TrEMBL record:
Pfam families: PSCyt1, WD40. The keyword Signal applies. The keyword Signal applies. Residues 1-20 form the signal peptide. PROSITE patterns: WD_REPEATS_1, WD_REPEATS_2, WD_REPEATS_REGION. This is WD domain, G-beta repeat.
Length: 652
């Protein structure tokens, strides 16, 4: 049996060996060690080696390649368009490598391409590193309120960087459909509730300083663009409900200064100091269009609300309108004399507004690309934003924020910023105006009356610190509430006392009036009896005419009826006297009641004191209540932050 078993095993092994020999050999893997290293060392090793790491990039070893440079990773497994190294050695992006020379031979490019698409393997037995790009589905373009309005479902997290000072407000935006604002910060984005002015958490942006923030047209996505000057730039899309990153595009060699997401959420346009307008697909992350029309830094970009057009502006006053999906030039818009600082489309997509350092806001219609209006403001306009109802907000060098109606007339000016105005936004859900300046503060005003309601910061403090500050304010707020309530009582008491006296007199007047009504009713009853008697006289007269034969009897009846009316007439006269006396008494009492009621009303000084006391009492009470409520919410935030840590300790 043993020999039979061994024979069977031998036959099986021979059979498998023969089959393997007949099968095609597996495709050779392209690896760094076997294929790519020699190319990098020969073509790039002079400048990019472990000793001389130009741009902080070393290509002579696998670890150095994967570490990337000062701008982040330079190769992305499975994705050529996201691999900065590939873009520069194929001369598709600046800076072209090798500099001032032709591209490396195509055969060598093919090897590097195969290596990247294969997952940037180090050696034959390495595991492929393929980065999966999350795809964003296309949505229907609509200017209507979405069925579900996106709001953060949880606290996004504590501030990642806490500094005693704040940095300038480089980006600011509000959701079109929810009371939400996003504010730039150092390597982070803070999300605020514009109704309560509470921090809803912080989104990390390790790419650097956010230079542009925009909510999608339906409010479900937050776009953030930025980076590090002269080193790197990127655009990231965040899910507003969860705070998760959905899409990343760019990998620029300089900071992204302008960007936007198309209304159907299929395209991302970006630009910056490289003067190149690039449009990427959100589904694949691939570059769709690349336009080098601008002659200076691209500083502003925005898709039209219907998604048909895309406008871009630069630092040398150039403005170009493009067809979004074809990338073809639509109109050049010439007229500004200074750098373009912002672009915003009117909600109907028929007019685009451009703001400039030349101090003007110009409106351009899209039928012929002609200018239809120019308004001078701020001595240099830094930012503007169309509101969904056609109004507009602006800010600039004069440290003011202004609200304009749909016809371009100034509605209100908001003062209070202590330095250059840099960013502006309007929250249509709460009718509040937000303005950010060079000091790092975002002030919030009521659009209705211009009153400043509070401030947001580019450097929010941790929840525990905010809770302590709120708790410190509560005693003073409660004391102020009690004092104003007492002052209100002092002002109110003499008025309420007079009102009580007037009420008593008014009750007496009502009682007399009731008696007068009774007298009127009695008079009416007497008049009814008189009418009946008069009718009897008339009937007797008719009987006299009709019955001449009974003339004498009718005469007697008429005399009798006539005599019977006398008491009724007397009763009517007496009832009239009673009614007159009652009416005079009622009028007299009513006059006295009216005089007392008038005297009970507060005079002008008392009314002013009463109004001021009521307002002060309400404001103080609201402040105390709000601070207590904020304390409870902050406690919950801290408890939520502590639970994961407690769970980790328990696990340890």
């Amino acid at each position: 049996m043993t020999r039979l078993f061994l024979t069977a095993l031998t036959a099986a092994a021979f059979s498998q060996t023969s089959f393997a020999a007949d099968a095609p050999a597996p495709a050779e893997k392209t690896t760094y060690n076997d294929h790519v290293a020699i190319i990098f060392r020969q073509r790039c090793g002079t400048c990019h080696n472990s000793t001389d790491k130009k741009g902080d990039i070393a290509l002579d070893n696998y670890a150095g390649v994967m570490a990337g440079g000062s701008g982040g990773e330079i190769v992305t497994g499975g994705d050529l368009s996201a691999s900065t190294l590939w873009n520069v050695i194929t001369h598709e992006s600046e800076p072209k490598m090798p500099p001032n020379a032709d591209k490396i031979p195509q055969a060598e490019l093919d090897v590097i391409k195969k290596w990247i698409l294969g997952g940037v393997l180090e050696k034959g037995d390495s595991v492929a590193k393929i980065k999966v790009q999350k795809a964003m589905a296309k949505i229907e373009v609509s200017n209507a309120r979405p069925a579900t309005v996106a709001m953060p479902q949880t606290f996004f997290g504590e501030p990642l960087h806490v500094s005693p000072t704040t940095n300038a407000v480089t980006a600011l935006t509000t959701s079109p459909w929810a009371p939400l604002a996003a504010v730039s910060g150092h390597q982070q984005i803070s999300i605020w509730n514009t109704a309560t002015l509470e921090l809803l958490g912080v989104l990390p942006f390790p790419e650097g300083q956010p230079q542009i923030l925009k909510f999608s047209r339906n409010g479900s996505v937050l776009l953030a663009g930025g980076g590090r000057g002269g080193a790197s730039g990127k655009v990231v899309l965040f899910d507003v409900a969860t705070g998760e990153r959905q899409v990343e595009v760019g990998d620029e060699y300089d900071v992204v200064l302008a960007a936007d997401l198309s209304p159907d959420q299929t395209l991302i346009a970006l630009g910056g100091p490289k003067k190149m307008l690039r449009v990427y697909s959100t589904a694949t992350g691939e570059l769709v269009h690349e336009k080098k029309k601008h002659t200076d830094w691209i500083t502003a970009i925005e898709f039209s609300p219907d998604g048909v057009l895309l406008a871009s502006g630069d630092r040398s006053n150039g403005v170009v309108v493009w067809e979004s999906h074809s990338g073809q030039e639509f109109y050049p818009l010439n007229g500004h004399q200074g750098a373009i600082t912002d672009i915003s489309w009117r909600p109907d997509s028929n007019v685009v507004a451009t703001a400039s350092e030349d101090g003007t806001i110009r409106l351009w219609e899209m039928n012929n690309g002609t200018q239809v209006k120019s308004t001078s403001s701020h001595g240099g306009v830094a930012a503007m934003d169309y509101i969904r109802d056609g109004r507009m907000v602006t800010t600039g060098r004069d440290s003011k924020v202004r609200l304009w109606d749909a016809e371009g007339k100034q509605v209100r000016e908001f003062a209070g910023m202590t330095d250059l105005g840099l960013e502006v936004a309007f929250d249509a859900e709460t009718e509040r105006v937000l303005g950010g300046d060079w000091t790092g503060l975002v002030r919030v005003w009521s659009a209705a009356d211009g009153k400043e309601l509070g401030q947001l910061s580019t450097g929010p403090r941790p929840a525990a610190e905010r809770l302590a500050k709120v708790q410190e304010l509560i005693p003073a707020a409660e004391k102020a509430a009690a004092e104003t309530a007492a002052a209100l009582a002092v002002v109110t008491k003499p008025i309420t006392d007079r009102e009580a006296v007037a009420k008593v007199k008014l009750d007496e007047a009502n009682a007399v009036a009731a008696k007068a009504q009774e007298a009127t009713a009695a008079k009416a009853a007497a008049e009814k009896v008189l009418a009946e008697k008069t009718a009897a006289v008339a009937a007797a007269e008719q009987a006299l005419i009709a019955a001449r034969a009974a003339y004498e009897k009718a005469i007697l009846d008429k005399d009798l009826a006539s005599r019977n009316t006398a008491p009724a007439q007397t009763a009517v006269a007496q009832a009239g006297e009673v009614e007159k006396a009652a009416a005079e008494a009622a009028a007299k009492v009513k006059s006295e009641a009216d005089a007392l009621a008038a005297a009970a009303k507060p005079n002008e000084a008392e009314q002013k004191a009463l109004t001021a006391a009521q307002a002060a009492a309400k404001s103080a009470a609201d402040l105390a209540t709000g601070l207590k409520s904020q304390t409870e919410r902050l406690k919950k935030v801290i408890e939520g932050l502590q639970k994961p840590a407690e769970g980790q300790q328990a696990a340890n």
